[in-house]
Amino acid sequence: MQGRAFALFDTVIGPCGVAWGDAGLIGMQLPQAAPGAAWARLRKRFPDAVEAPATAPAPGEIERLIQRVRDLLAGGRDDLTDIALDLADTPDFHRRVYAIARAIGPGETSTYGEVARAMGEPGAARAVGKALGENPWPIVVPCHRVLAASGGMGGFSADGGITTKAQLLTLERARTRAAPTLFDLEFSVAPPRRRSEDGGD
Predict the structure, then answer these.
(1) Per the CB 3.0–4.6 Å rule, which of 38, 61, 104, 173 could disulfide with 145?
(2) How many whole angstroms separate alpha carbon 42 and alpha carbon 6?
């Protein structure tokens, strides 16, 4: 790979995006409510990245990643832990948080406090939440699987907030509390997405 590039791709939850460079992924983008907003967000986040043409959207390894993300969002169990991330601009604390978050598999959840304790910093739950809120690689670094201590959603910085977080957990059939929940019964707490006749948003 040479330089930085990005591409959008369709998924069951809407258009997502991926940006990459020579050292690995530099960012992922979840769907945005407004048409074209995901593209605009990627352009703003990575102004030096070139959009990959639709006729040849990405190198082979990125195409494989795109398909793996699609499969995961369609109910697959791929944990994506082998995907290389460009961590050059990532603070050490954030790196440690993201490494622990990546160990949480599809359908599993943890809490901010549990992540902090796993880092050996039991008082750092708020800092863990802040680091996850700044996560450049949602889905690949599955910040949606980290919840509040009560089992509630906690925060989520992507478009749609906790509704998007709940939708991702629902797709993974994740258990969010010790007792059975709507997720376990395969219901979604997220409102259904309206889709056009061609299958898009």
Answers:
(1) 104
(2) 8
